[in-house]
Amino acid sequence: MSVVPRSGQVVKRILLGRAMRSDRLGETLLPKRLALPVFASDALSSNAYAPDEILLTLGMAGGAFMATNSLGVTAGVVVVMLVVVASYRQNVRAYPSGGGDYEVATVNLGPRAGLTVASALLVDYVLTVAVSISSGVQYAATALPSLRGQEVPLAVALVVLLMAMNLRGIRESGKAFAVPVYAFMVSVIGMGIYGLVQLATGRLGTAESAALELLPEPGMEQLAGIAMVFLLLRAFSSGCAALTGVEAISNGVPAFQKPKSKNAATTLLLMGVLSVTMLSLNVFLAGKAGIKFAHHPGEQLLRDGVPVGDSYIQDPVLGQLARVVFGGFGAGAVVISVVTGFILVLAANTAFNGFPVLGSILAKDGFLPRQLHTRGDRLAFSNGIMILAAAAIGLIVAYEAKVTELINLYIVGVFVSFTVSQIGMVRHWNRHLAVEQDPRVRRQMRSSRVINIVGAAMSGLVLMVVLLTKFNLGAKWALLGMAILFAMMLGINRHYRAVSQELSLRDEGESILPSRVHAIVLVATLHKPAMRAIAYARATRPSVLEAITVEVDPERTAELRRAWIEREVPITLKIIASPYREITRPVVDYVTSLRSGNPRDVVIVYVPEYVVGHWYEQLLHNQSALRLRVRLHFIPGVMVASVPWQLRSSEGQDTEWYDRPMTGRAGNIVP
């Protein structure tokens, strides 16, 4: 049971909508037109910052190096994207249950490989929210300079808003986010096509930053040999941020309408084509427009030989490109900034769908708390959604919503999962080829295996590059987070297995019936709640029944003794002295002594309590019953029975308070 007042219920229904029956789960399934914005927004949105990361890294060696190598690095990213998309199309066909990379790795490589993938994905989902929201806030500050300096509170507010939207259910969030995602796709691809037309007709202008000189960072003036290769690899690994989110569709197959695997594979293909197109157009046109992008613009960018200084505001690549393409049509640039800000915020929605589903599967398998497997009022995995929001907010606050710092923690997890799952898929095809006899099916399996082999090799190569180039920049913290999660999930699983083994009925002949039942009623004052507890205890016909009171105030104890005799209460009253005015310890010591003297007896402690109707009334009463119950629960062979007495203020509250543990209610020994 839970405790939510009626006013809270009204607010909850306004924010989340009416609760849905479990048999309406099918109504939450997504057609492809909604699945694309829900699951592909992360991968699509990365086109807003992947060009920035490529140019930013290449710009460390100066403007000439950036202009010469940007297309080559982008081509490498595109090749990896196409290979990974092709590989994951095999995944969703072979494993449509929604376990995604975790299921593939667990089935084919073992539970520890599965946990490695799961820990990597969970960390990556949190980083997806933090990076996407922070990047979206930066674009918002570009369009509305008044927001500069308020990025952190704005980012936190957006995470909370996304959390609330997803608590309403996956289909609800898909409908709400579809328009902005499609607007981003149409706007960016439309801008790219218009830019190509301008380039072909000689009307494409140049960016404001094209007139500036981009100096190399100190120590990067003369790159050659290994140093140059290392920088190119670092730019490539930064650009591979465009691949984040590809795995989300394989983890979300159960959310698709039937035929699930086919619809998921089609959505993956659409996402890959759109993402590759946008990234290629953006980087190509940025080079033609002469856009300069620097880590330290105030120092590296020179105008007429003089650094532009800290007052210079460096807008994101997409924002600069929009002003070039649309020229005097300022509204076009504003539209690009607005829809980009929206898509970056909504990209976090992919994680809000992937993280709770993966958390639910892990909870079902006993690697995470079982509460994560429970669906909320709107049939969403509410606990997972709220945990993801809290973790992302923590990162945003810790890194002050700075994308350039958060991005270095990013993509490690996703390429760990890419690599391990593709190796698992190779093992999958090997197992099936060993028993399959149909020549046509065997040919299809061999083709799929080749795709997954290439995918595994390519993902593994990128992972090594990422670790090599980004370890000291922040990737080590992501790896540490994965290691902590891995160890935590193993510990949770050990606990659940130990509890299951301890509670199992190994010996069918083992007697669980006690030899006797010793009942105790706790009283402090003789009134209606105490008499009800005594009546209930007598009705159970225990072997021994007695009432005990702890003497804290001798006068009150004497008054209780007189009332007991006058009313002729038909059970023995035992008084326990408490010279240090404690209540809990004397009761626990007495109960423990009963158990030690008669280990096969069961002791039942009846606690008369009253229930108040308003939270502020609880401030006027002690919590002695709660403390006592907690202590008694740790004594083997002891049971605690609460006997409630409802005060008038609690009338009608039985229909208003629910969905929170009983320990949240007022539980007080009646004074």
Give an overview in words:
With 671 residues, the chain is an alpha/beta fold. The protein folds into 2 domains: 6-497, Up-down Bundle (Amino acid/polyamine transporter I), CATH 1.20.1740; 517-669, 3-Layer(aba) Sandwich (Rossmann fold), CATH 3.40.50. The chain is 62% helix and 7% strand. The protein has 23 helices and 9 strands. The chain has helices spanning 6-16, 32-45, 50-58, 63-94, 100-109, 111-143, 151-167, 170-200, 225-239, 246-251, 260-288, 297-300, 317-326, 330-364, 382-398, 403-406, 412-433, 439-503, 528-539, 554-566, 584-597, 615-618, 624-632; strands spanning 213-214, 301-303, 306-307, 517-522, 544-551, 572-577, 602-611, 638-646, 668-669. Strands 4, 5, 6, 7, 8 and 9 form a 6-stranded mixed sheet that branches. Mean pLDDT is 81; it is low at 1-8, 20-26 and 655-671.
